[in-house]
Design a protein that fits this description.
Two copies of one chain form a homodimer. Chain A is mostly helical and 190 residues long. Chain A has one domain (1-188). Chain A contains five helices and two strands. The first copy, chain A, has helices spanning 3-26, 48-73, 87-120, 135-167, 184-189; strands at 29-34, 38-43. A two-stranded antiparallel sheet of chain A has the order 1-2. In chain A, a hairpin with a 3-residue loop joins strand 1 and strand 2 (38-43). The longest helix of chain A is centred in the middle third of the chain and has 34 residues, at 87-120. Chain A is elongated, with a radius of gyration of 22 Å. The two termini of chain A are 19 Å apart. Chains A, B: The chain crosses the membrane at residues 12-29, 49-69, 90-119, 139-164. Chains A, B: Homodimer and heterodimers.
Chain lengths: 190, 190
């Protein structure tokens, strides 16, 4: 299996975990009667951090769908080599993948922090804990965050692979000089 | 200037920003009289997220100090080339640098999220905002978080550079095969 197919399958995994995270979180809600009179509904809209995580995960999943299409639909050479792209495209993919993984990771960390506060409260700031009242809701959020970490792990591997595909085109001797004095096409097919 | 020196200077920048973040946050405290009777002191210990950020930044700064020593003290060849390390060391540096940047970024994002809650409060959860009372404290935390983002940016560049130095040793044609059939030493000095 050539490297483009490997990348495609990794991105498929990432999409699965991202969509799972977004769905688990987005469809999580619990209604509870407080003080026998007030009805209170908990959903991911209550906290900005969860709201952003759902939409960022959805956006990065869509971005990866485009990459999967590229990986599986554009034909490679018979030797399983990459002939489809010039090194400039690799730079673009490198930057986009880095941006994707850091964005998802930031949203994930913020959501974990907000959930930790909701779980434990902060006594010195008089923020009370909430998960003793919305237990099932909080357990589902916890599951979603675990899936989110799986997605981040796969995205880290994907972004390393995209760095690998870019940087192996460069000379091991001189800084930022392509291997040999060949043009793009020749370089990629050698 | 060869690539090892470049890396050394980048890591120096990262250390400066990391130490600045940790100090701005660690030495930030404000005491205020609430309700004319209760004296209340705000410090970074009040929130776990800020506490962890200070210590993680300090740890990653120390790790980078070791790298700076390596970059400037171990001699390179006359051509400014890297002769000091085998490719296995590059793999180690690659993994450690990735771990460092993701750890700092996670701590940074969590601290930003906690600070956002402290700044705006979450009305639906009855978490009240705090920064209207501890204004100077909160402004200094904000400055520290800005420095933290600068540190993360530099660390991202450093980790890309470390990926570059590793992956350029590999063949552009075959997956994870070193260039040519040379041994480590020969490869790095060619």
């Amino acid at each position: 299996m050539d490297i483009v197919r490997k990348e495609g399958f990794l991105r498929l995994f990432a999409i699965v975990f991202l969509v799972l995270t977004a769905c688990l979180m987005g469809f999580d809600s619990q209604t509870k009667l407080l003080f026998d009179t007030v009805e209170r509904k908990a959903s991911f809209n209550d906290m900005d951090a969860l709201f952003f995580l759902v939409w960022i995960d959805a956006a990065v999943a869509s971005y990866n769908v485009l990459h999967v299409l590229r990986c599986f639909l554009i034909p490679t050479t018979a030797k399983g080599d990459v002939k489809q792209r010039s090194y400039k495209n690799y730079w673009l993919f490198f930057f986009l993948d880095q941006a994707a993984v850091y964005t998802v990771f930031a949203a994930q960390s913020a959501a974990v922090e907000a959930s930790a506060i909701a779980l434990a409260g902060v006594r010195s700031l008089q923020w009370m804990k909430l998960c003793n009242r919305f237990t099932r809701f909080c357990i589902q959020i916890g599951g979603a965050l675990l899936c989110g970490y799986a997605a981040v792990l796969v995205l880290v591997v994907v972004s390393s692979l995209s760095a690998f595909q870019l940087f192996r085109l460069y000379s091991p001797k001189k800084f930022l000089q392509l291997k040999g004095k060949l043009n793009d096409h020749h370089l990629l097919s050698m």
